[in-house]
Design goal:
- The protein is an alpha/beta fold and about 180 residues long.
- About 30% of the residues lie in helices and about 20% in strands.
- The chain has 5 helices and 7 strands; from the N terminus they run E-H-E-H-E-H-E-H-E-E-E-H.
């Protein structure tokens, strides 16, 4: 783990604008709870001075055939910190994650699945690692044998080296092509 921490820029002191990207495919049944949980997490992060006021959730509808998109629109109408993207068809989980990462205008991006099988407390640990100077922080669950809704990774399972949920510094998505699409 020490070798994985060699390329650290230095601590970040200012709160960052954080985007929580949530890929969704037929998630109508869990989306209200997910939105409430993640908005509460943003509130905690803001209260701790870890994220800026402009931080937000971005739900990416990956070709859902249920009422997911209508619910995302409803949530957005009631809460300005919620935004949504509707993909033209199902591009798959990673396609939805990438679309959200490329379209969100934020200093850092965290991805988390809509079913919240991974503990949202990991987001706080990831943001702390980001503020410590790490550009990429990934969370890994050591044991997935008991996968059910709302269990799995804990705040202690955050490492800057493996993949599951992740936080990435926004500059990785600040290319000329991405800037042109945002105009």
């Amino acid at each position: 783990m020490d070798a994985q921490r060699e390329h650290v820029e230095g601590p970040r002191t200012a709160p960052s604008r954080l985007a929580l990207v949530v890929p969704c495919h037929n998630e109508q049944e869990v989306l209200r709870e997910t939105a409430a949980t993640l908005l509460a997490r943003l509130d905690v992060l803001r209260a701790e001075g870890l994220v800026a006021d402009g931080s937000f959730l971005c739900f990416v509808d990956d070709g859902s055939t249920d009422g997911t998109w209508a619910l995302i629109r409803e949530l957005h109408a009631r809460e300005p910190r919620i935004s949504g993207m509707k993909l033209t068809r199902n591009f798959g989980h990673q396609g939805a994650v990438l679309a959200g990462m490329l379209e969100c205008d934020a200093d850092a991006v965290v991805t988390i699945d809509a079913d919240l099988q991974d503990d949202d407390a990991c987001i706080t640990a990831m943001v702390r690692e980001y503020h410590a100077g790490h550009d990429i922080v990934l969370g890994v669950r050591g044991d997935r044998s008991a996968d059910t809704s709302r269990n799995g990774a804990t705040e202690n399972d955050v490492t800057p080296s493996h993949a599951s949920d992740s936080i990435l510094r926004g500059r990785y998505f600040d290319t000329p092509a991405v800037r042109a699409r945002r105009r």
